[in-house]
Design brief:
Elements (H helix, E strand, L loop, with lengths): L2 E6 L3 H11 L5 E7 L2 H11 L3 E4 L8 H11 L4 E6 L4 H10 L3 E4 L4 H12 L4 E2 L1 H21 L5 H11 L4 H8 L3 H15 L4 H10 L7
Parallel strand pairs: 1-2, 1-3, 3-4, 4-5, 5-6
Helix pairs in contact: 2-3, 3-4, 7-9, 7-10, 8-9
Length: 215
């Protein structure tokens, strides 16, 4: 029986190219496509695919949010992130949302097929590049930051650093695919935990702790 695939990506040319490639395999059947996260959820409910190949930066509902919703409704549907985003917060966001695989869009065709087969069999699949990012983050500088700020959670540290770099609440919300209200809540927790009063105090604290550089 062929593996049923749903493709979600906001670039039509990429979707159509991927469909053309995947239909060359006798073991794979592309059942539908979606142009954004909202449509991906609707099509997934209709088609009940085995695997949803999901981009991250899509309109209306991001790939991260759509993955989280899908996994709560249909935990048996596998999700493979296929994206150009290599930043750690995107990787972390997708994996925490329940993604079963993570690949870059410039990966070889054979690797994508291997990832599909692995995920279909119930395994997790991360490309070598993604594994490298995770190792660098969690074994290297990530541990150093946690030691400097044991009071803060990982997400609070991330938001503290973004504020200290001059990002607005809206920019941070867009970067992390969360609401402005959520950013505001995290900011208030940071201020309370560190006994600070303002964004300026957060910047000073981040510089003092070495979380950002003046140069």
């Amino acid at each position: 029986m062929a593996i049923k695939i749903l493709i979600a990506d906001d670039h039509q040319l990429f979707r159509e190219g991927l469909i053309t490639l995947l239909t060359d395999s006798n073991d794979i059947k592309v059942v539908d496509q979606a142009k954004d996260g909202k449509e991906a959820l609707e099509k997934a409910r209709e088609q009940q695919p085995d695997i949803l190949i999901m981009d991250i930066g899509m309109p209306i509902i991001s790939g991260i949010e759509a993955t989280g919703i899908l996994k709560k409704e249909f935990p048996n549907i596998k999700v493979i992130a296929l994206t150009m985003h290599s930043e750690k917060h995107f990787i972390k966001g997708m994996l925490e949302a329940g993604a079963d695989g993570y690949l870059f869009k410039d990966c070889p065709y054979d690797e994508l097929i291997h990832a599909i087969d692995s995920v279909f069999q119930g395994k997790k699949y991360l490309s070598d590049e993604i594994t490298g990012v995770i190792i660098q983050d969690y074994v290297g500088k990530h541990e150093d930051i946690l030691q400097k700020d044991p009071l803060l959670s990982e997400r609070e540290l991330e938001i503290l650093k973004l504020f200290a770099e001059g990002k607005s609440s809206r920019e941070i919300a867009d970067t992390l695919f969360v609401s402005v209200k959520t950013v505001g809540t995290h900011k208030q927790h940071i201020l309370n935990k560190l006994n600070l009063n303002s964004t300026a105090d957060m910047v000073k604290y981040a510089i003092k702790k070495g979380l950002i550089s003046l140069w």
